[in-house]
# Entry
Amino acid sequence: MILLDLFYNVLAETDDLEKASEIVKKELLKRKVSLVKSQDTYEYVKMRYENLLELEKKVRKVKELKN
# Structure
């Protein structure tokens, strides 16, 4: 599963940003362990995770603006 899809699915189900982020972190750690031999793939996963962190910040800002 793509990390971004996982993030959005958990966020949609729980509406809990921290939980969604934590689940993605755990999934990333699982993948990191299995991808240690392939540095290029690990860099891609790392880049995707950093993108998720940026999205998380944007979602928080939107929630703050709504309140």
